[in-house]
Design goal:
The protein is mostly helical. Helices cover 70% and strands 0% of the residues. The protein has 4 helices and no strands. InterPro entries: ParD, ParD_sf, Ribbon_hlx_hlx.
Length: 100
């Protein structure tokens, strides 16, 4: 893992220290890593939203579409539980199930 040093004004350092103490982080590095991960997620979501907004209209969805989606997600969750996993469905598992 690489190291990075940052300079913060006292007010921001106190804020980070308070977040670490109040929210159960072990170090300020853990807190900053989580902030960076959240920003990466936000940027990814923004990109996906922009991509979707600029794409051609897809097939309209209705109650049958959502019923099939729930059924597919439930099947993936059931299979995961049988394999000893939590049963939570990841995006990649759902996409894999979709193409099957």
């Amino acid at each position: 893992m690489s190291t990075m040093n940052i300079s913060l004004p006292d007010s921001l350092k106190h804020f980070v220290d308070r977040q670490v103490a109040d929210r159960g982080y072990g170090t300020s590095s853990e807190y900053v890593r989580e902030l960076i991960r959240h920003d990466q997620d936000r940027q990814r979501l923004r990109g996906l939203l922009l991509e979707g907004a600029s794409s051609a209209p897809g097939t309209p969805v209705d109650d049958d579409y959502f019923a099939a989606l729930r059924k597919r997600a439930q099947g993936v969750a059931d299979a995961a539980r049988q394999d000893g996993h939590s049963g939570l469905v990841t995006e990649s598992e759902l996409l894999t199930a979709r193409s099957a």
